[in-house]
Amino acid sequence: MHIQVKDLNKSFGNFQAVNNVSFEIEKGKLIGFLGPSGGGKTSILRMLAGLESPTSGDIYFHGKRVNDLPPQERGIGFVFQNYALFKHMTVFDNIAFGLKVKKQDKAYIKERVQYLVELTGLKGFEHRYPHQLSGGQRQRVAFARALAPEPQLLLLDEPFAAIDAKIRTELRTWLKDMISELGITSIFVTHDQEEAIEVADEIMIISKGELEQKGTPWEIYKNPQTPFVASFIGESSVIENIQFIRGFEDVSVDEGIKALIRPEYIEVGRPGEIVLASATVDALVKHLHFRGSEWMVELEVGDQKLITYRSLEKEVLQPGERVKVLVHRAYLFNDEKSWIMENPLKVDPLPVFI
Amino acid sequence: MNSLFRSRTWSYSFRSIVIIYFIGLIIIPIISIYTQSFSSGILNFWDNISDPLAWKAVFLTLKLAGIATITNILIGTMIGWVLVRYEFPGKSIINSLIDLPFALPTAVAGFIILLLLGPSSIMFEWFGLSLVFHEPAIVVAMVFVTFPFVIRGLQPLLEELDKSEEEAAYTLGSSKFRTFFQIIMPTMLPGILSGGMLAFSRGLAEFGAVVLIAGNIPGKTLVASVYIFGEIESNNPQGAAAVSVLLLTISFIILWFINKLSRGGNTL
Amino acid sequence: MRRLWISLTYVVITLLLVVPLYKIFTGAWAQGFDGFIEAIARPQSLHALKMTAIIVVTVTVINTFFGVMLSLYLVRATWLSRTIKRLSNSIVDLPFAVSPVIGGLMIVLLLGPNTIMGTFFNNIGVQIVYALPGMILATLFVTFPIMIREVMPVLQEIGDQQEQAASTLGAYSWYTFWKVTWPNIRFGVIYGVVLTVARSLGEFGAVLVVSGNIINKTQTATTLVYQDVENFNVVAANAIALVLAAFSIMLLLLMEWTKKRKGVH
């Protein structure tokens, strides 16, 4: 579904939650609303869903103005932060709910629910109740339920906020794959940068009710357009030729792949400090900045700049010093896709079995 | 002081006194009703039970308590809903007033109903309706004394209901009407049911509010509790005990159901 | 839609609760202020009010003590098996299901003048049925579950970790109770007290049966109202009822105030 928003405003009394926001979203894209808590992202999402009405401004789905349409008629699927599963219904009934509303016949409902149950990996759980499921399972039910009536737009409000960190990464990947397979236009709200970069095709940075910047993660990190965006995304390193980083030599040159490496995934140390020496590459310390609780270190690997942080507990590095750098993981992008790559050399070559 | 209470004797004496109190005040009296009613033999018990007046009294009580309970379920659900979902002037006063029937003596309640619906009241003069000494007055009395039960039963459940469950239903295409019946109602239902059962059980037992206004016409407006009272006054404690056993057994069964319902609700 | 429900609510509340209150307050002045005072100042009125007061105080004190103790035992005691605790828990609720008349009947059957226990007490000079002790017993029975139903949930919710901590710090049971347990259950107990007072104030059926309603001897305020109505002395009945209603309103306010402080409902 093609979405267009013009001059959207929402105020609660004196508080301006959303301030003159305008944007367009192409059909089939997966968009992330990223920004600090209370910045207005969820308000915009809820206005798109019809759960809240704008103070002023217009929303168009496929060119048709939908401001006055209630949520029931907008053809959307909504996944809530706390799942909002119907506590007194089984998994099957939860997923079937939207279909029963549309008065689909029983055979079709059964088939569709079965399909979704298998798609979301919940086979065997159809007759369980929400309180008998884990957090991850509940989230998947919420997802299946939203998808059952074949919505044209999928909206997700911080879908992974309430989930354990370990399962979060699994679910994120699963979600991204699922959405791209279904080809459905989707928008999700998050305050987690890593999540936004990993999952979204495009990110919209929203803060204090204003749209700061819209673009691919690459665009945003390379060319932050406002001071807020620049400080929000932090000092990630932007690399054109990842092949020169040890461990990533196999990344193909011709596909125009670039990399974004967050400082926390760059480890710097004197020769001998880093245990996995075989995975490190030589680097030169260019500058050091004292940041109160740690050092910010600017490095050069070949002609590429890297930024990372070094703890005050370790020995202080000097500008001009030759050091070793281990890149743990990088976010790789080209025009078509994006993914995370762990440094393959991180596997201990001499595993010891106890 | 500490060392005084630390001693074992104190601890054991406390325990014994409390246990004796519990057994002596509650358990023994209840058992005694059952034994006393059979004390002159089964035949006598059966005679007392099968007295047509007794039967009629019990049935009448069941019927009227049933009507009162249904009334309270309807009104109570509406009021409970209004109190939880809406804001309006006087809301907190009304919320506090709901508990009035719990605070007011039942005899006073009966007296007021007598004043309002009795021969010298507006009801009679304006509408020519003499409600007192007829069944409707009894129902009114029962509705009054059991008024808070359904409301207080469903309020916490409705307050706990997550707004996002409703919103989820809307996004799935469900109208407000459908959402109310399929999503909101099932959440309130355990509270309404347990409140209703408490109300029914209380209505069955009600004496004070009813005896003042019922006229106690045997077979017509004589409820079980007043019948029992009558038997006691006419020096027929066995008869009174027999019908008491009947009434008690019904009430205990209801109590058991309520317990089951609240425990079932807890696991959900 | 919304307006409809709110208006209906107002109507119901007014008809069912407000109008009755109003009627009670105005009816008492039917014969003017003097009529009201006269009705209250009758010897039987004063006696009845005194009886009610004695019963209320005695019953509340006794059932508060036993209620709190039993709650503690039923929730925390290690010397009671779990089945006994669960069984007792169900039994506690029984008086709520018993009609007050039956409650009075039980006392009469157990301790009446024709029974073993009754004659025993009579011989040592204590009359139970048709006298104050019987009335107190009947009211104790009827109000028994109230305190326990208020205190037990609180005890269950707060757990006993604080008390365990206190014992590791050297505190013994009495000290622990006052300094640790009591502050936690305080408002639940106060709420229970208010409810018990309200209930014993209003107790009618059980007391009527047990006391014989002997004027100037075993009459309470509520049974006096009953008698006045039977004698068609409506104004007098109204006056007593007004006094009772006034107390009830105060108790209601106390109830609401305590409910808020209590937190958990």
List keywords for this structure.
heterotrimer, B: 268 residues, mainly alpha, MetI-like fold, 15 helices, C: 265 residues, 13 helices, 82% helix
Quick rundown:
Chain A has 354 residues and is an alpha+beta fold.
Polypeptide structure, described:
The complex is a heterotrimer of chains A (354), B (268) and C (265). With 354 residues, chain A is an alpha+beta fold. In chain A, the strands form four sheets. Chain A has a six-stranded mixed sheet, with helices on both faces. Chain A has a five-stranded antiparallel sheet with strand order 13-17-14-15-16, with no helix packed on it. Helix content of chain A is 24%, strand content 32%. In chain A, strand 14 and strand 15 (294-301) form a beta hairpin. Chain A has helices spanning 41-49, 91-101, 106-119, 135-147, 165-182, 193-199, 217-222, 227-233, and strands at residues 3-12, 15-25, 30-34, 56-61, 64-65, 76-79, 153-157, 185-190, 202-207, 210-215, 237-239, 258-261, 266-269, 281-290, 294-301, 304-311, 322-327, 329-333, 338-342. The termini of chain A are far apart. In chain A, 40% of the residues are buried. Chain B is globular. With 268 residues, chain B is mostly helical. Chain B has helices at residues 2-6, 8-37, 42-50, 52-85, 91-97, 100-103, 106-117, 122-127, 135-145, 147-160, 163-171, 176-205, 208-211, 224-233, 237-267. With 265 residues, chain C is mainly α. Helices cover 82% and strands 0% of the residues of chain C. Chains in contact: A-B, B-C. Chains A and B meet through strand 6, helix 2 and helix 4 of A and helix 11 and helix 12 of B.
Domain module count of chain C: 2
Largest β-sheet summary of chain C: none
State the distance separating the first and last CA atoms of chain A: 55 Å
Which word captures the global form of chain C?
A: globular
Measured as a percent range, the helix fraction of chain A is: 10-25%
Radius of gyration of chain C: 22 Å
Biggest sheet of chain A, open or closed, and with what strands and sense? Answer: 6 strands, mixed
Major sheet of chain A: order of its strands? 6-7-8-3-9-10
Work out the radius of gyration of chain A.
23 Å
The CATH class assignment of the largest domain in chain C is Mainly Alpha
Report the mean per-residue pLDDT of chain C as an integer: 86
Instruction: Give helix % range of chain C.
Output: over 70%
Unreliable spans of chain C: none
Strand content of chain A: 25-35%
- Count of beta strands of chain A: 19
Strand content of chain C: under 5%
- Secondary structure class of chain A reads alpha+beta
Q: In angstroms, what separates the terminal alpha carbons of chain C?
A: 30 Å
